[in-house]
Amino acid sequence: MNESTNQPINEFIDNEDHPREACGIFGVYGHPEAAKMCYFGLYALQHRGQESAGISAVHNGVLHEHREMGLVSDVFRKEQFDKLPGSSAIGHVRYSTTGSSVLANAQPFVVRHRQKAYAVGHNGNIVNAHQLKEELEESGSIFQSTMDSEIFLHLFVKNLNMGFEQALVEAAARLRGAYSMVVLTSRGEVIGIKDPYGFRPLCLGKLNGHWVLASETCALDLVQAEFVRELEPGEIVIIDANGPRSLYLPKVDRHAFCIFEFIYFARPDSTFMGNNVYQIRKAHGRRLAAEAPVKADLVMPFPDSGTYAAIGYSEASGIPFELGMIRNHYVGRTFIQPTQSMRDFGVRVKLNPIKELLRGKDIIIIEDSIIRGTTARTRVKALRDLGVRRVHLRVSGPPHRFPCHYGIDFSTKGELIAARMTVKELETFLGLDSLHYLSLPGLLQSTGVSDPESHFCKACFDGCYPVDFDQQVSKLCLEVNQE
Q1: What CATH number matches the domain at 22-258, 3.30.420.40, 3.30.1370.100, 3.60.20.10, 3.30.930.10?
Q2: Contact predicate 296/433, CB 8 Å
Q3: CA distance 333 to 313
Q4: For the whole model, what pTM was predicted?
Q5: Which of 122, 123, 300, 483 could in theory staple to 324 by disulfide, Cβ–Cβ 3.0 to 4.6 A?
Q6: Whether residue 457 lies in the annotated active site
Q7: pLDDT, tens only, 357-367
């Protein structure tokens, strides 16, 4: 752990100025090697969570599971698949947004009830988890973890007297906030659930007559599954021997897909709403070039953030695209942490500049976000020390001024440097010649989605939260829109 930030060192040198990824979920029904298919699916979703990984599989009515802290490649070894038999399985990679980073909170989470078993893998954040947990504990529930995901299973089993399908609907309807889930039963059903606002992604695929659920289409590609469709907001898909069938939660007045999937979270080879993420990030860069032109010798990203927006900016501006920083891909999770006096070393070990390319040049750096500002400031200083003449920073999204309550890790306003400084003040703090963020209208229009205002959650930019979590939300949104 890092002494000053209490973060794992690889996170310090790579992600301090970026939001942490949401979790990744995957499910398989009917495949003779379901657990192995989950393993490969989780590989494709590793970017969504690197703290823990797990797979649950069902064989002859018995639910088997394996979960550990670490990356997918570390958690699963060949011999473990002998202990995960069956043709139905779900998997999960985790970054903790609710609940601490310990093995007890690794997923899929399993409960056993009246000779049956159920497992759940969850991506998102349930904003009324505290109230629901208190209510369940008052009625006798005993919790094994601090995860909000466990609450769903408690609600589900308490409603089973209504019947299996109605229990799913009743349990999901009690949850408020962002959630996409995969559920596995000891009977072998695989279930996908998406909240009514559609905050988090979940799609359905088909593989040689077998069915697959995944957070992103890139995971379908890896296992060679055909993309069928994205789940609708508020949809519950139950997959059994008869194929998929759908139930629906009560409708809400809008959708709220997390727009940060397009900016940062998702892999660029994934597709949402019929739009490829790679192409949309390039469109962000083209729009940024139109909104914030500046003369320079080259356009460059800090790998791997901002790369695709930088390509778009270069194409639109005619300024050459260069990879002025080279990333060391072999810095593992166990890299020895730098001491306080070696802080610059901790940043340099991940990225190294091409001195001959950058010295004496005017450069444009494209980033996808600035969260805390500390890493960005260190990098700009290093470029100045190298002899870069002018440094212009362009960000392919608006300033992050408001905390996220739906599963992204910047949960307090104090963490967000753009909430404390104006753009001009931030420009001076970071040591830049100029700083410009993509406007919110520019971001929305470059998604290629019709009527984007009613499709996306953009609360981290404008403070308008689709789902209330306290009494101040409506007031906050009103004040922001009156500014």
Answers
A1: 3.60.20.10
A2: no
A3: 33
A4: 0.89
A5: 300
A6: no
A7: 999 999 999 99
